[in-house]
Design brief:
single chain, about 725 residues, alpha+beta, TIM Barrel, Jelly Rolls, 4 domains, eight-stranded parallel β-barrel, binds 2-acetamido-2-deoxy-beta-D-glucopyranose
């Protein structure tokens, strides 16, 4: 037995005897202990089945949290899991923010109020398709830092942040009667630095031991003092359960991420079928798992500029609760039934170890024993029969000939009554919502075009400077400006501009304020590339000086961060006009302007909107790049009052690409880019693609607490130019009973 386990057992003075089901309601407000044995996490010494779902606080809003928690509890969860997002809490070194969507303590209180335990995955590297994997970009400036490694500079900042968070959440720890029972250090660490893994392990048993939590490390190397956990689509079929039993016989089996996956711009919407999710969750509990978390249970939205490279604003929409907060049927109900069943039988399941027994299958002529049809029986009353094969088979169980569909699990009681079938969703309605317009008639827009030159401070240099170094990612926009003189050849033929830039970046080109064209890459990855675009300069004159401008737009910082692979944005090397190299010319320096004028003046807020002269002749600005649109609307025709259950959405049809703001709040990047269906089967846990050649995302969620009954200020900044603003509308998605 591992010594840590001994300590926990000794602290408890209680044997692992199952008494009654433990939920947070049973222990709230009083200090309680968290420990584990090989079968489960134990609360006050009682093995407890943790039925969990991931909900990320900044991917929804404080006004939504109580609703989401209530839904989670009703759907059958007893635990929620969240990452901790360093780069929203400490955007500038030493300046902490725990307000609004970053109000982690409010989120923990809302979980506690709903009666839910919490698994806090601190990291601080979190991946999560979150901008820069959760790390503040100012870390890039720390001398000699090497991320996620046994590096002094990294360990110093990582330790400081972990200690800060543990201190901040102290009232919410189990030892103080709060909901937090499990914490995570690091995330999916698959590097080769064992000294770093050991350091993580020492940190949780030394400096962080006073938190009295159980610590996990997921899907990768785990320190001895932590529990390694599974992130996958199916932890039984992929062999994880067998490996874990062999490698960690004294540690319970915890499934931190049953993947619902995510969405990238330009791809068709990817779907994981309900029956596949149901199969994997049922197999997990059958196989002896005692903690299961959907990743995500509610994906929410990447509001503002929080999405990682190429990731859409809706996050993991095809999970149990849609990105807009409506139940995703039939998944929501089918898995709810399973979770309630598992909760009802938790004591029986956790009182014994899981044992797999192979079952004879009918090959058409005789019964054979293979490896893909088996039962996990929990005496006295529960039997999980699983068929891992793609095809339906008949199996022999207790002299009964039972039909089991391919890739499915059926759960029976001891009299062989069918309690649940992973494939049977026939009585669940999937068309459970309808969309209604709530603003009648086209919106009355006014416009203001972003000025290409301004009085804003600029930084000059011989070479273009990498974007994040200047912006600290406080804005996704950076202007690069320089004077150029065109040659006769350049204006006669199309001129090739080549720029060394990064993936997930857009570049818009202007000459004396005239828009020439754009380049964009929206890969969900990182790395350098050379942007090449052909510009028509025939309207310009030779041997005359022009102002050449590039608006660089970050389309998210990739979430993969390790060692010295710093992520960059904007121009990261040379730039050429044909063969003319536009750097290192003392008579023509590069100027850099951080952000847009509209951002400085905050023209998307009540106070800021009066600082510019809006033009009401808005139709003149159709298709005009870098243009702001503004309008007001009332919630006149709402069908249902509860805007959490029946969300309000921006239908962005008619726009191109940019950000939309409601009453000063940034809804995130919208983009009407069409989604392409791939010929091959979609990646990872997904089985299908929908909405081929439709925009990857057309509707954008507006949180209830950002709305007012009347006079809502809607502001749009479309960088490419909006082709049909009159098509934009505000709608409500209503759940039908
Ligand atoms: C977080 O929420 C709580 C409860 O609403 C509030 O008292 C507290 O002031 C909030 N924190 C911040 C930093 O805004
Ligand atoms: C930074 O790294 C270099 C090369 O590894 C080393 O020589 C130098 O001492 C380091 N500086 C600090 C402040 O750690
Ligand atoms: C972790 O456990 C393994 C196997 O028992 C042992 O070889 C190793 O030294 C331990 N590491 C640390 C840092 O305690
Ligand atoms: C088992 O049931 C299947 C389907 O009903 C049938 O085809 C098969 O013959 C049965 N096998 C036996 C041994 O009864
Ligand atoms: C599926 O479930 C429904 C409702 O419980 C039931 O009526 C139906 O018979 C089931 N279908 C199959 C094929 O088991
Ligand atoms: C371009 O040249 C003009 C004067 O000819 C100067 O005022 C301006 O600052 C220059 N612009 C840049 C970006 O260097």
């Amino acid at each position: 037995m591992h010594w840590l386990l001994l300590i926990y057992v000794c602290l408890d003075f209680l044997p692992y005897v199952v008494t009654s089901p433990v939920t947070y309601e049973n222990v709230r407000g009083k200090p309680y202990s968290v420990s584990y044995d090989h079968r489960a996490i134990a609360i006050n010494g009682v093995r407890t089945m943790l039925i969990s779902g991931a909900i990320h606080y900044p991917r929804s809003t404080p006004g939504m949290w109580p609703y989401i928690m209530k839904m989670a509890k009703n759907q059958g969860l007893n635990t929620v899991q969240t990452l901790v997002f360093w780069n929203i809490h400490e955007q500038k070194p030493g300046v902490f923010d725990f307000s609004g969507r970053a109000n982690l303590s409010q989120f923990l209180q809302d979980a506690a109020d709903a009666g839910l335990f919490v698994n806090l995955r601190i990291g601080p590297y979190i991946c999560g398709e979150w901008n820069n994997g959760g790390l503040p970009v100012w870390l890039n400036q720390i001398h000699n830092i090497s991320f996620r490694s046994n590096n002094g500079a990294w360990k110093t900042v990582m330790r400081t942040f972990l200690m800060k968070i543990i201190e901040y959440v102290n009232p919410y720890l189990a030892k103080n009667g709060g909901p937090i029972i499990l914490a995570q250090i690091e995330n999916e660490y698959n590097g080769n630095d064992q000294a770093y893994v050991d350091w993580c392990g020492r940190l949780v048993i030394n400096e962080l031991s006073s938190a009295q939590l159980v610590w996990i490390m997921c899907n990768g190397h785990a320190a001895n003092s932590t529990i390694e956990t599974c992130n996958s689509c199916n932890c039984l079929d992929d062999g994880w359960i067998d490996n874990h039993r062999r490698d960690y016989p004294n540690k319970p089996m915890l499934f931190t991420e049953n993947e619902g996956w995510f969405q990238a711009w330009g791809e068709a919407v990817a779907i994981r079928t309900t029956v596949d999710t149901a199969y994997s969750v049922a197999e997990w509990f059958a196989g002896g798992g005692s903690y299961h978390s959907y990743y995500m249970w509610h994906g929410g939205n990447n509001y503002g500029r929080t999405a990682a490279s190429g990731i859409t604003t809706m996050y993991a929409d095809d999970v149990l609760l849609h990105a807009d907060g409506t139940p995703n049927e039939p998944k929501y109900t089918q898995l709810s039934r399973l979770q309630h069943l598992i909760a009802n039988y938790a004591q029986i399941l956790l009182s014994q170890d899981s044992i797999r027994t192979l079952l004879p299958y009918w090959n058409g002529q005789k019964w054979l024993i293979g490896t893909q049809q088996f039962v996990y029986s929990y005496s006295p009353s529960l039997h999980f029969i699983s068929n891992q094969n793609d095809n339906t088979y008949n199996v022999l169980f207790r002299n009964k000939n039972l039909t089991i569909t391919g890739h499915s699990v059926r759960i029976f009681d001891d009299n062989l009554n069918l309690l649940w079938d992973s494939t049977n969703i026939s009585d669940i309605r999937s068309d459970n919502t309808e969309i209604f317009p709530i603003v009648m008639g086209p919106l009355e827009w006014r416009t203001w075009s972003e000025q290409v030159t301004s009085d804003l401070p600029v930084l000059t240099s011989l070479y273009p400077i990498e974007q994040l170094k200047i912006t600290n990612d406080e804005t996704i926009y950076l202007w690069y400006r320089r004077n150029i003189t065109l040659t006769q050849t350049q204006i006669q033929s199309h001129t090739l501009v080549r720029v060394e830039t990064r993936k997930a970046n857009a570049l818009l080109f202007f000459l004396n304020g005239e828009y020439l064209g754009e380049f964009d890459n929206h890969d969900h990855s990182q790395g350098s590339l050379i942007a090449i675009i052909s510009l028509d300069l025939s309207i310009f004159k030779p041997n005359q000086q022009y102002l050449f401008e590039i608006l660089s737009i970050s389309l998210g910082i990739d979430n993969g961060v390790w060692d010295n692979n710093f992520e960059y944005k904007g121009i990261v090397g040379n730039i050429w006009l044909d063969n003319q190299l536009l750097v290192n010319d003392e008579t023509n320096l590069w100027e850099h302007q951080k952000g847009l004028i509209g951002e400085y003046l905050q023209i998307y807020t009540e106070q800021g909107s009066s600082k510019v002269e809006w033009n009401t002749q808005w139709t003149k600005d159709i298709n005009k790049p870098i243009t702001w649109f503004q309008t007001r609307f009332n919630l006149n025709h709402i069908v249902r009052e509860d805007l959490n259950a029946n969300p309000i959405l921006l239908d962005a049809r008619g726009l191109n690409r940019g950000h939309a703001f409601i009453n000063g709040n940034d809804l995130g990047l919208y983009w009407l880019l069409e989604g392409v269906c791939r010929d091959s089967t979609p990646c990872c846990c997904q089985q299908a693609q929908i909405n081929c050649l439709e925009p990857t995302q057309r509707y954008y969620h507006i949180p209830s607490d950002w709305l007012m009954p009347e006079n809502n200020l809607l502001t749009i900044f479309d960088d490419l130019g909006a082709p049909s603003p009159s098509s934009v509308s505000i709608v409500q998605r209503v759940v039908i009973a």
